């Protein structure tokens, strides 16, 4: 069996930093607006002859250990390694990741990859995603038909905790919602739930793309320092 999952990265249009706990609790009605884009990430799980192997195709580096628990943490693959350890991937598993976004480009590539990897690991372990909206993660639509689904109720919180451990700093949550939902969304952060509001129907997103230009200066930045 081979399992492969993909997820988009995003452009942060407004409200960045307000998605960090507990900042959004201090602002009544805090929201972030972002747009998922076609620059994406990919996670692939496949059979392997040895223990557990992790390979980043875009970085051309890899790590291998007899078991998932024995995978080391640290280095450029830290987030992927932590996720493989948490998911308890069995021996004879190879994880291959890839990202189209330049390192440090500010497009939320690490969060996108984390969502794709968690989805692939869930399927690999024989627990298919539920694809059911949850109480704490509610998509809404104001006059727009929405087919948004959540992989699992706590995926966003789990992803943010794994990434916070990896970068040793607080993490925002908007990137995970862009990777899960796609499209152009307003993400409202409240006391007991997060509401994802689509701002455009899918048929109008192509028109929006015609009015956007995305460039990379070549100078990476550490968004966590914000």
Description:
The protein is of the alpha+beta class. 26% of the residues lie in helices and 27% in strands. Strands 1, 2, 3, 4, 5, 6, 7 and 8 form an eight-stranded mixed beta sheet that branches. A hairpin with a 4-residue loop joins β3 (52-56) and β4 (61-65). The longest helix has 16 residues, at 109-124. The protein is globular, with a radius of gyration of 17 Å. Mean pLDDT is 84; it is low at 128-151.
Helix content: 25-40%
Give the radius of gyration. Answer: 17 Å
Strand content: 25-35%
Structural class: alpha+beta
Q: Number of helix segments?
A: 6
Distance between the termini: 42 Å
Query: Describe the biggest sheet?
Result: 8 strands, mixed
β-strand number: 8
Tell me the overall shape: globular
Report the uncertain regions. 128-151
Task: Write the element-wise H/E pattern from the N-terminal end onward.
Answer: EHEEEHEHEHHEEH
Average pLDDT figure: 84
């Amino acid at each position: 069996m081979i399992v492969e999952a993909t997820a988009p990265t995003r452009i942060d249009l407004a409200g960045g930093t307000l998605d960090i706990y507990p900042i959004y609790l201090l602002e009544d009605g805090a929201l972030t607006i972002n747009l998922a884009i076609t620059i994406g990430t990919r996670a692939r799980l496949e059979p392997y002859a040895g223990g557990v192997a992790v390979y980043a195709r875009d970085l051309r580096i890899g790590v291998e250990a007899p078991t998932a628990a024995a995978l080391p943490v640290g280095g450029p693959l830290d987030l992927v390694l932590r996720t493989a350890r948490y998911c308890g991937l069995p021996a004879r598993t190879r994880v291959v990741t890839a990202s189209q976004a330049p390192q440090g480009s500010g497009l939320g590539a690490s969060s996108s990859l984390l969502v794709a990897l968690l989805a692939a690991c869930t399927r690999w372990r024989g627990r298919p995603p539920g694809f059911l909206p949850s109480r704490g993660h509610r998509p809404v639509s104001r006059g727009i038909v929405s087919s948004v689904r959540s992989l699992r109720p706590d995926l966003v919180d789990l992803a943010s905790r794994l990434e916070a451990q990896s970068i040793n700093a607080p993490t925002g949550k908007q990137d995970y919602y862009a990777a899960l939902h796609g499209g152009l969304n307003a993400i409202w952060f409240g006391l007991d739930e997060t509401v994802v509001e689509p701002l455009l129907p899918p048929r109008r997103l192509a028109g929006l793309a015609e009015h956007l230009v995305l460039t990379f200066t070549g100078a990476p930045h550490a968004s966590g320092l914000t």
